[in-house]
Design goal:
heterodimer; A: 178 residues; mainly beta; 5-stranded antiparallel β-sheet; 3-stranded antiparallel β-sheet; 12% helix; B: 174 residues; Immunoglobulin-like; 6-stranded antiparallel β-sheet; 1 helix
């Protein structure tokens, strides 16, 4: 009986030793905190505007620039949207003034025509303050439009004095939530 | 007779001392405390935040993922040391994957990912790295590395700027 008891105690001690050996002793413990984000709502979309026309437009001689022309392609814009949970509405607003010559103090009214087709068909006229609206679906999407310019009706550039410094700036602004 | 005996007893030590040119010793005991230094430094907390829907963290990106921190161990321990990955249940999903968590509009969102040591994916509770002992010590030069994470799905998660997670590494004496 005593031998059995001694064996049991010895077994318990050895077994316990093995258990402790497997557990190990914690020397030190450090934690890495990581903070992450998925684009916040105001960062869910990006607007990229690309100017493709770098040469001056021949205002009188370029047939595309005339009121009955196709318009002169000056660039395009791309809106990229990210990680939408659901559909989201967006609006690109165009703001611009007349073509103006500082040297002759003349001005010339024009308009922009916005196309989905790069060849220039099926465009939509946009006066200053006009906009293009679209809805981005779930996940990542892109929307692209081509921007052309042409004279407005009844504007006759042949009546103006010669000048090489007609300029105008078109500002594009992207907003959410129609 | 008694007086003679007492005198002899007093005299004996004097005789003994006067004749002893013996050897004695000074004992010096020194110790070196067991010491281990374990550093874990993260890149994305506080003002710095990690974008979770772009770049190396994406499931289909090449490589081990995005590097979120570095570790280093230096120790003079004669024992064998291991570095173990220990994740809190708060940051595990039901399948045991580590997750970023965030409460978005009242809904608890979990974004699962895997942890990589630069060579392979490491499961929770497993050894994170094999520590190298040279001449009985662990030098920082031989024992350092990076922590990478990578998402395991391409699901769309709601926009939120405060998804959080914790990655704990524990240095253990075997």
């Amino acid at each position: 009986m005593k031998k059995v008891l001694v064996l049991l105690i010895a077994f318990a001690i050895v077994g316990g030793a093995f258990l402790f050996a497997n557990d190990g002793i914690v020397e030190n413990s450090n934690t890495l905190n990581v903070t992450g984000y998925i684009l916040s709502p105001e960062k869910l979309a990006e607007l990229d505007v690309n100017q493709t026309l770098t040469e001056p437009i021949d205002i009188v001689g370029n047939s595309d620039f005339q009121e009955d022309g196709n318009g002169v392609l000056i660039g395009n814009w791309v809106v990229s949207t990210y990680a939408h949970v659901g559909d989201e509405g967006y609006k690109v607003t165009y703001t611009y003034g007349d073509l103006e010559s500082a040297s002759t103090t003349q001005s010339l009214e024009y308009k922009i025509v916005v196309h989905t087709d790069p060849t220039g068909s099926g465009g939509v006229d946009k006066a200053t303050g006009g906009s293009t609206e679209f809805v981005a679906g779930e996940g990542e999407t892109t929307a692209k439009r081509y921007v052309r310019v042409k004279l407005v009706e009844d504007e006759d550039p042949t009546l103006l004095d010669p000048a090489t410094d007609f300029t105008s700036t078109i500002t594009l602004n992207l907003t959410t939530n129609l | 007779m008694k007086k003679v005996l007492v005198f002899l007893l007093v005299l004996l030590p004097l005789i003994s001392l006067s004749g002893a040119i013996g050897t004695s010793t000074l004992n010096l005991v020194g110790t070196i405390e067991s010491k281990s230094l374990f550093d874990l430094t993260g890149y994305f907390s506080g003002d710095e935040s990690l974008r979770l829907d772009e770049g190396d963290i994406l499931v289909d990106a090449e490589g081990p993922g995005v590097e979120v921190g570095t570790w280093a161990v230096a120790a003079n321990s004669s024992a064998d040391l291991t570095l173990q990955l220990d994740l809190s249940a708060t940051y595990l999903d039901v399948e045991g994957n580590p997750v970023f968590t965030g409460n978005v509009s009242g809904v608890d969102i979990k974004i699962p990912y895997v942890i990589n040591n630069g060579e392979s994916t490491i499961e929770n509770g497993a050894n994170f790295a094999t520590l190298v002992k040279v001449n009985g010590t662990y030098s920082e030069e031989n024992n350092n590395g990076s922590v990478f994470i990578k998402r395991i799905d391409d699901n769309t998660y709601p926009p939120f700027d405060n998804y959080t997670t914790e990655i704990q590494l524990t240095l253990i004496t075997n």
